[in-house]
Recover the amino acids of this structure.
């Protein structure tokens, strides 16, 4: 399995398309850092205008931790779209190229092939998030320095001591990784069903968008479905920045996301094992 | 000589289309087995079922005396294949493609062995070039190298000369003959060209609309006594009349033009007869297309024929 996974990773990182996501993330992080460097204080003043009337917040508010939180808040909504680019191509791309039939004439079981492809997709997703974390966090700390993290949640401001921040980011990274692997699993399932890359990429992106809209709309008709929508749980990485952290809620979301991954991968394997390769 | 492949009552249906219909055949160890049929006859579907890419609706496939469904991995370890055209990873180099295929086949090969393999198919100097820069012929050669990298006992080639220039076709033909005669490989090769199969195969199977039309030794199926010969003359009508009044009357076919079903060795006598009767013969040649062969089978009531030694 590991041998096959290494081959899949080798193929992923030899495709120019793979680097689009890395380039896009680097660009967005750079733009946010540039904007904050130029107008960060004005942005903060606008954000804090209600509490500045009653409170005097001291210390270095515009710091690397704050900038990275802002980056996470912005990027984790859009990264799923970038993940779909690679995950949607994993099986359908090979079917389109014709290499899938070559692959399946080799003495390796279909289950092993599909699982190794999914593991490689997950590793790619983790590397993308790691790149975002390293570039976003360490880059921002290098430019803006460190300080206490101020997080706005609805109409509440939470102030987290600088020494209490890093473990929260590590936990949020783990949770975000699980969320993004769910997105990868959705795109992967569509990829197993199709014989060209564009269809699964667009279908997976559409799925993420539709589910996100259903999650944000407060309409009774959709409320019953919300607890089961992966998009309803994906942004619960923010739970690690509560004081105190509601571990039960965060774990519930994590389990729901994990359940999605297991279910989607199981369906992908089942379909792939039954599929006639006609391309 | 044992049977390496045994196919029994194989059928596959896609919605309303029956692609393969109750097909049975066997391939002996060490032979080159030609698999003939026109486009859409069911050749590729059959080959895909042999390689487990498609699941049959009915029937069984046994390779190396093992059922392909239950012993897939063990069987495929000894099979090398190209299906239709060798689609490879275009963004990788030839050596990288070959290395991936070797690993997938479960064999460890050194870089010098990989280069030797490319040398064998005549593209050693392009090992570090990306496949997207290759011509169709070079891709075909690399595909063959990929199929042979793990030294399989059985090689399955689906239309291996498709898209190749005459030199490429000759090279593939020579490689197949070399693998068979010098390395003792068993080779199943499909084609829609009878002339191609005639040159390389020991036995052949002809299918049409998913059904077996004929199976047997090439030498028997392409019996020189039943050769279709097309004659072109200055005056076809006069020629036809003269032939009708001669010993060639029964050999004359009811098709367009002047076509006779006769023994190859009688061709000089025919020419002599026509010239003696003042017919100007422009050309005389055996017909070798699959359509002509179907015609010869049909006209001699040998449709669905089996010839075995």
């Amino acid at each position: 399995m590991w041998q096959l996974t290494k081959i899949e990773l080798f193929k992923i990182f030899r495709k120019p398309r793979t680097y689009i996501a890395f380039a896009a993330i680097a660009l967005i992080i750079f733009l946010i850092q540039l904007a904050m460097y130029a107008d960060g204080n004005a942005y903060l003043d606008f954000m804090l205008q209600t509490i500045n009337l009653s409170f005097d917040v001291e210390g270095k508010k515009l710091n690397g931790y704050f900038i990275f939180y802002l980056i996470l808040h912005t990027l984790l909504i859009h990264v799923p779209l970038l993940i779909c680019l690679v995950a949607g191509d994993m099986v359908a791309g090979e079917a389109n190229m014709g290499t899938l039939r070559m692959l399946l004439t080799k003495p390796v079981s279909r289950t092993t092939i599909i699982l190794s492809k999914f593991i490689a997709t997950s590793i790619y997703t983790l590397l993308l998030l790691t790149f975002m974390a390293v570039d976003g966090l360490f880059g921002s700390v290098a430019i803006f320095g460190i300080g206490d993290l101020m997080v706005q949640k609805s109409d509440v401001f939470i102030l987290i001591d600088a020494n209490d921040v890093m473990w929260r980011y590590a936990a949020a990274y783990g949770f975000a990784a699980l969320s993004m692997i769910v997105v990868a699993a959705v795109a992967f399932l569509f990829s197993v069903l199709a014989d060209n890359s564009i269809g699964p990429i667009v279908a997976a992106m559409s799925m993420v968008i539709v589910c996100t809209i259903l999650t944000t709309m407060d309409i009774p008709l959709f409320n019953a479905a919300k607890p089961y929508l992966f998009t309803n749980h994906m942004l619960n990485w923010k739970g690690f920045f509560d004081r105190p952290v509601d571990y039960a809620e965060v774990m519930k979301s994590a389990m729901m996301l994990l359940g999605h991954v297991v279910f989607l991968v199981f369906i992908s394997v089942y379909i792939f094992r039954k599929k006639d390769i006609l391309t | 000589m044992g049977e390496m492949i045994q196919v029994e009552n194989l059928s596959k249906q896609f919605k309303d289309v029956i692609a393969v219909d109750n097909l049975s055949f066997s391939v002996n160890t060490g032979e080159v087995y030609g698999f003939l049929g026109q486009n859409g006859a069911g050749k590729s579907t059959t080959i895909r079922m042999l390689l487990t890419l498609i699941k049959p609706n009915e029937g069984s496939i046994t390779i190396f005396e093992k059922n392909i469904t239950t012993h897939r991995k063990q069987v495929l370890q000894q099979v090398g294949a190209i299906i239709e055209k060798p689609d490879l990873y275009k963004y990788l180099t030839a050596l990288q493609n070959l290395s991936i295929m070797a690993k997938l086949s479960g064999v460890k090969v050194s870089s010098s062995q990989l280069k030797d393999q490319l040398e064998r198919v005549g593209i050693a100097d392009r090992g570090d070039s990306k496949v997207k820069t290759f011509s169709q012929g070079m891709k075909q050669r690399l595909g063959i190298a990929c199929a042979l990298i793990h030294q399989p006992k059985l090689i399955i080639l689906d239309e291996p000369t498709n898209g190749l220039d005459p030199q490429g076709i000759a090279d593939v033909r020579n490689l197949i003959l070399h693998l068979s005669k010098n390395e003792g490989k068993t080779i199943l090769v499909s084609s829609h060209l009878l002339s191609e199969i005639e040159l390389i195969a020991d036995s052949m199977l002809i299918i049409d609309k998913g059904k077996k039309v004929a199976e047997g030794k090439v030498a028997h199926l392409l019996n020189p006594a039943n050769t279709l010969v097309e004659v072109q003359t200055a005056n076809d009508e006069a020629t036809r009349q003269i032939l009708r009044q001669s010993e060639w009357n029964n050999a004359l076919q009811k098709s367009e033009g002047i076509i006779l079903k006769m023994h190859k060795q009688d061709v000089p006598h025919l020419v002599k007869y026509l010239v003696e009767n003042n017919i100007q013969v422009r050309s005389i040649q055996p017909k070798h297309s699959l359509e002509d062969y179907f015609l010869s089978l049909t006209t001699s009531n040998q449709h669905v024929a089996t010839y075995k030694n």
Observations:
- Chain A has a mean pLDDT of 87.
- Chain A touches chain B at residues 3-4, 7, 10-11, 14-16, 97-99, 101-109, 274, 276-278 (CB under 8 Å).
- The beta strands of chain A are 149-153, 156-160.
